[in-house]
Amino acid sequence: MTDTPPRRLRASLTGLVAALIGVGCVVPSLPDGTDAQPPPRAPQSQDPQAGTTGPANTTLDGTDTPEEFRQDVADAQRLTERYWEEQFRAAGRRFQPVSRVITYRRDGEVTCGGQAVPAANAVYCPAGDYIAYDENWSFGAFRQIGDAFVFYLMGHEYAHAVQVRLGLRHTFTIQQELQADCMAGAYLGDTVRAGRLLLEKGDLDEFRAGLLAVGDDPDQPWFEQGAHGTPEQRIGSFFRGYDRSLAACELGG
What we know:
Blueprint: E1 7-8, E2 20-21, E3 24-26, E4 58-59, H1 66-90, E5 100-104, E6 111-112, E7 115-116, E8 121-125, E9 130-134, H2 135-145, H3 147-165, H4 173-193, E10 197-198, H5 203-212, H6 231-244
Parallel strand pairs: 1-4, 1-10, 5-9
Antiparallel strand pairs: 2-3, 3-8, 6-7, 8-9
Helix pairs in contact: 1-3, 2-3, 3-4, 4-6
């Protein structure tokens, strides 16, 4: 892959709602009931080679247009795939990107292993080796929260794909999800340290504030299917990965 121009995140992640269960992420409605108009339907796959040329340093201009949304999705996918390709190569292994990243708008429009993927959702489906996201919901989240949401979401979903590629097994959902948070943190931290993604002052606090919003409810048993971890556990997992890279994520091998 060619070098990716550095990206500068502009976002407050406060209020981010991304509960991650099973094969991917299942998320409730945006906290203020935002019903944003979606962008035009994007192609059913993102070209990982698209958009790799440009100025040496890209600073987002603060807009929240459909065009910027689509570019952020493509950039997040490209950065994530480049990161994992490099990690696999360093370990003497070949990395296979997910087969596609697709969009949908309605319950049941996309299925995974014969089960309908619900609206207001983003998932990694191991049966089809794809990432799918509800473009209505994700564009609304992008407008309300900012582009950091897109980069975190893609990082977490790709972490699930990497778990499958590495043959990682977990007894409880909470283990799978906290590890994916750690892996997303490692990807973002390493990408920032490599100079490919630029953070502004306060962005780390905004990541922390956003992760506070995605923890399980206090009455959620940790051992139940779909448990993700308390806000403190999720913050801890993400920032262990962010600060210490993949060594903190218990990938084994």
